Amino acid sequence: MAGATSVEAHYRDHLGPVYDWMLGDFDVAAARSESQLRAAGLGAGGGALAIDLGCGSGLQSIPLLHLGWRVLAIDSCALLLDRLRERARGLPLQAIEGDLRDFPRHQDRPAAAIVCMGDTFSHLPSRADVRVLLAACARSLSPGGGLVLGFRDLSGPPPRFVPVRSDDRRILTAVLEEDGEHLVVHDLLHERGEAGWTMSVSSYRKIRLPPAAVRADAVEAGLEVTSMSTDRGLVTLVARRT
Q1: Above 70 in pLDDT, residue 1?
Q2: How far is CA 110 from the centre of its chain?
Q3: H-helix or E-strand spanning residue 174
Q4: Cross-strand partners of 238
Q5: Distances (CA, A) of 152 to 46, 117, 168, 238
Q6: Strand ranges (DSSP E) for 117-169?
Q7: Is residue 2 pLDDT above 60, yes or no?
């Protein structure tokens, strides 16, 4: 099995080119995201600033823009940012290639909302980085501003194999390996070309985030947690700056 690489290299060289395929029909997936954002209290934006940390190709940014928010979107994968810019043409989007932990450098006013969805939070190197980022989110929100986090509950024994998506051209399977407070994720991608099937493998590390600990860290950062729910292993935490 391949050794772990950086999250940035993993997405740039391995997952980025097939990321939209992983999502399936983007419009359908974005509609689900919009429903989730509305349920978290992020309805009509009225031109207020929302920050999308680890935005990918726009699964949260596009619904936020359509709801009337001005969006600052940050991701480390240039390919995914290019797709987001195409989708957001003519809308008030600022897309930044960089480390999501550096987001305060790019905002010109307090944010009314910050979102970090799709298990991006677990890509941080350590629990200490989680606490630092939560504190930065609390400082960067306007009073009453909302934070919505999505992350997988990987605190217990993980499944060994996770089928991600497959069709007649591609098969993506994740193999999970325990490594203390981390998991090593090996993404196995099979693709069929003219010469038959080929396989490529890339691996990266994820921090394991116990939901109760993340909730405690958010409160310690000065946020009021208003809800926390779990659906098929994916935790959604909603908080606001008091």
Answers
A1: no
A2: 21
A3: strand 170-179
A4: 148, 227
A5: 31, 10, 28, 15
A6: 141-152, 161-166
A7: no
